[in-house]
Amino acid sequence: MPSAPLVGLPSDRKQIGLHPFQAVGEKYIRAIVDGAQCVPVLIPSLTPSLDLRDLLGRLDGLLLTGAYSNIEPHHYGLEPSYAGNLHDPARDGTTLPLVPLAIEMKVPVLAVCRGLQEVNVALGGTLYQKVHEAGDYDDHREDLNATLDDQYGPAHPVRLAPEGLLAKIAGAPEADVNSLHGQGVRDLGIGLRVEATAPDGLIEAVSLASNDSFLLAVQWHPEWKVRENPFYLGIFQAFAAACRTRAEQRA
Ligand SMILES: N[C@@H](CCC(=O)NCCCC(=O)O)C(=O)O
């Protein structure tokens, strides 16, 4: 019997006082423990990065978390970043190469919010830097003055692709999700298929078209109170099942 799967979580690089720190939100760590029954392993985002191939060879899954920072737009070749945009180049330099490597090595990937954007950009896709200014889209940002429970509460439904992974998890064609993002998918990355869309048409979730390995990326936050929401829990349990399969193969 293999021991519990090891899931890597790349960290954010944050300045606290005079020193840089490596940080991962505790709700993501808790969701790996409580929702997936796996062991979280924090991956420092260093420059230059660690040997990511070696690292992935020791892991059974990868969780790309959300973050307030945004991917530097030169990674998707569009207009320069807007003034005041918060970036984390060390995290970009870790997560963007991790995505294709994880696919190549068949390491299961679950990606949340910034994580979905990283999956899309790593596979050649592009982003809207401000969804709410992009034309026909709603404002998908949270109210930063609201309580956390309100910020992470249901914000809008998503329509789930028939025959998709999320429709199977939900057992329904739609589900309610939270919404806390200013950026979003513009052009879809290569090899991705749409799993869910918002009522305004924005892409809200993607998976690997080839089904070669488990990769599910969602724009909402299923880690929030994961055990209280059957749909969110189902997402972590589907990821955990893929991680267990890899752990058995690695044993
Ligand atoms: N910065 C991006 C991604 C949004 C995101 O990941 N928010 C997470 C907030 C904190 C957390 O819950 O981890 C965007 O604005 O689109």
From TrEMBL:
<comment type="pathway">
    <text>Amine and polyamine degradation; putrescine degradation; 4-aminobutanoate from putrescine: step 4/4.</text>
</comment>
<dbReference type="InterPro" id="IPR029062">
    <property type="entry name" value="Class_I_gatase-like"/>
</dbReference>
<dbReference type="InterPro" id="IPR011697">
    <property type="entry name" value="Peptidase_C26"/>
</dbReference>
<dbReference type="GO" id="GO:0006598">
    <property type="term" value="P:polyamine catabolic process"/>
</dbReference>
<dbReference type="Pfam" id="PF07722">
    <property type="entry name" value="Peptidase_C26"/>
</dbReference>
<protein>
    <recommendedName>
        <fullName>gamma-glutamyl-gamma-aminobutyrate hydrolase</fullName>
        <ecNumber>3.5.1.94</ecNumber>
    </recommendedName>
</protein>
<dbReference type="InterPro" id="IPR044668">
    <property type="entry name" value="PuuD-like"/>
</dbReference>
<dbReference type="GO" id="GO:0033969">
    <property type="term" value="F:gamma-glutamyl-gamma-aminobutyrate hydrolase activity"/>
</dbReference>
<comment type="similarity">
    <text>Belongs to the peptidase C26 family.</text>
</comment>
<dbReference type="GO" id="GO:0005829">
    <property type="term" value="C:cytosol"/>
</dbReference>
<comment type="function">
    <text>Involved in the breakdown of putrescine via hydrolysis of the gamma-glutamyl linkage of gamma-glutamyl-gamma-aminobutyrate.</text>
</comment>
